[in-house]
Amino acid sequence: MLRRARRILPGDPEFGDPLSTAGDDAPSAAARANDRLIRDRDSAYREVSLAGLQLWHAVNERVSRKPSNPEVTIVFTDLVGFSSWSLGAGDDATLRLLRKVAAAIEPPLLDRGGHIVKRMGDGLMAVFHRPEVALAGALDAMDALAGVEIDGYTPRMRAGLHTGRPQRIGGDWLGVDVNIAARVMERAAKGGLMVSAETLDRIEPEDLESLGVQARRVRKPFFGPKLSGVPEGLEMYRLVSADDDGPSIRV
């Protein structure tokens, strides 16, 4: 009965599970502590406590005026050929490289107002509230990486950007738009920066010009495998230096 009643209360009726309480806000921290103290998951007292925390969490979001799923630009990055290199380089060199990479690429993303959602070995996921700022941050990160070198090895980074409305659950972001951003990055197989049409369409031409880049549409390989987890007709663009020869393409 208490669980059913929580569905009519403001906020997330599932608040209290590990996904929803992974954030760094006060209600999430209180919910994690509550879960450790009350081991009986079928306890009525636990449901009453979570109902109060659910309301607190909902009010906290309304006061801060942060919607649960605002439009954001998602950035995924990783290093090209990192796994093959690390096998031969060994753990010590790999750890030194990852520390240098993080020290190089994370400050530019944070300085531009990005939020690093999670780190995944040689890559990361970040979100920005404006696509042109996300693009500038990714370009800054790539420039910063150019100065990283370990035992003669210089890593190459690839990045993918996509704009949408993923679901924010606790400290993570989930949903189709997150999957799309990851697939966009994967298309930059040899490194570089790829964006979806949804991101490019929200960036003004003068912003691209000021960043010194132009967009070239990526043709789908005729015999290539279909991308899984993305909608049909997804269009992607490779961003290259505006000094490169060839026509720029704008959505």
Automatic annotation (TrEMBL):
UniProt xrefs under Gene3D superfamilies: Nucleotide cyclase
GO MF assignments: adenylate cyclase activity
Chain segments carrying region Disordered: 9-28
Guanylate cyclase domain: residues covered: 73-185
Organism field: Mycolicibacterium brumae
InterPro entries hit by this protein: A/G_cyclase, Adenylyl/Guanylyl_Cyclase_3/4, Nucleotide_cyclase
Family of the protein in this entry: Belongs to the adenylyl cyclase class-3 family.
SMART domains with a match to the protein in the record: CYCc
Name of the protein this chain belongs to: Adenylate/guanylate cyclase domain-containing protein
Pfam hit, one: Guanylate_cyc
GO biological process, one term: intracellular signal transduction
